[in-house]
Amino acid sequence: MLKHITLYSIIAAVSVLALFLVCFVLGFKINTTRSIPVGLYRVSNEPITKGAYVIFCPPQHEVFNKAQKRGYIGAGWCPGGFGYMMKQILAAKGDSVSVAADGVKVNDLLLPNSTPHEADNLNRPLPHYRTKRVLNDSEVLLMSNASATSFDARYFGPIHRSQINAVIRPIFTW
Questions:
Q1: Average pLDDT for consecutive 10-residue bins of the chain (174 residues)?
Q2: Whole-number Å distance between alpha carbons of 77 and 11
Q3: CA–CA distance, 24 with 9 (Å, rounded to integer)
Q4: CA-to-CA distance for 13 and 4, rounded, in angstroms?
């Protein structure tokens, strides 16, 4: 009896591992954070454009080092040991961007859920990124459209387009 249970456990574990491997090879990504809608996404060959959901490697910068130490982003295979992040491009080349205490504005329109918080849920101070400028052709503003507590551009500013790995398309979200 114990032999059968052990055998079935091994088969189940190998099956789950094989399923995850197949999903990875086919470009499926699971988002479990509230930065974008929770669900299943697939890597796409679509061009990087405003409004697209993207998966990216955070730049090697002190703000991301601190974010990883605090658990805002995980460890992974990106340079610096960072995990991938998923956000939506809400501003790109030519867009006027303002990041201030009242929130993030793109072309003078205040984005919902964009007011920066002074501290995280453990009362640790959050970074204060502030700017008012027009984005150049190599910059994008990556934000959450779903969460007021996301670690996004209101804390780290625009990033270079080269940090983006791919556009991701939702398959099933909730």
A1: 77 81 81 93 96 97 96 95 97 98 97 96 96 98 93 98 97 93
A2: 28
A3: 23
A4: 14
Query: What is the residue type of 18?
Result: A
Domain boundaries, the chain: 30-173
**Prediction pTM value:** 0.89
Phi, psi torsion values for 109, nearest 5 degrees: -105, 125
- Can you list the pairs that 20-28 forms with residues at least 24 positions away whose Cβ atoms lie under 8 Å? 27/166, 28/171
CATH number for the region 30-173 comes to 2.10.109.10
Separation CA 59–CA 77 (nearest Å):
13
Q: What pLDDT, on the 0 to 100 scale, is given for residue 123? A: 97
Q: Alpha carbon of 157 to those of 101, 122, 130, 133, 171: distances in Å?
A: 13, 23, 8, 11, 29
Q: How far apart are CA 147 and CA 135, in angstroms?
A: 23
